Amino acid sequence: MIIQILDSRDRIAYMSGLHPADADAGLTVLDVIGQPVWPYIYQGAEQYRAAFSRCRAGEGPQVCDVSIGFAGNVHRWIGKVDCFGQDQLVITVESVPVNLEDLSARESEVLTLLSQRLSSTKIAEKMGITVSTVEKHRSKIRSTLRLKNECALTQLASCLNGKAQLFFSSSTNGHAHLESH
Question: Within this chain, do residues 52 and 121 fall inside the same structural domain, yes or no?
Fold first, then answer.
């Protein structure tokens, strides 16, 4: 998880850290402090702007999906935007694999239930399918998201539930790189 505070002109006033790939590329937090956030938005800028506006209009915390690029790397994040002080925003982002939408509806449902820490048996009961079918969905999720093993799947589910400190690479070939922090 990374926390940013943006000033009233959407400049980065504080940032708790960087994605490890960006740090490996030589970027530091000091390189982005004082910079406007918009040049770093690769995808989802309209959704992000709308979340900022709704939050500043007093509509409470907003959640959005955004791809942000630093140092030539693009990463996908689920962000929670909330007001902080007068006209400042605090943004908490969790790293997620770039290709979550490649999952089928049933695979997404299994992943959502995994994020609730349910066992395969409980998931099977809840979905009205066999445990074997749940295991097949788990395997397909790992394959689609290029997760190396069951542990990475469990960590992803925790991340989607806001319970983990993980960073996923934006790589679309090979295995998703997963780092715990």
Answer: no
* Cα–Cα dist 126/104, whole Å: 17
Structural domain for 153, as ranges: 100-163
Establish how many alpha carbons lie within 13 A of residue 162's alpha carbon, considering only the half-sphere containing its beta carbon.
7
Token digits of residue 88: 């400042």
Q: Which residues of 102-135 are buried (b: 16+ CB within 10 A; e: fewer)?
A: ebeebbeebbebbbeebebeebbeebeeeeebbe
Specify the pLDDT at position 181: 39
What average pLDDT does the chain have? 85
Domain count, the chain: 2
Residue 72 pLDDT more than 50? yes
One-letter amino acid identity for 53?
A: S
Tell me the backbone φ, ψ of residue 48, rounded to 5 degrees: -65, -45
pLDDT band at 115 (very low <50, low <70, confident <90, very high): confident
Cβ burial of 89 (10 Å; 0-12, 13-18, 19+) is buried
- Asked whether the beta carbons of 108 and 97 are under 8 A apart, the reply is no
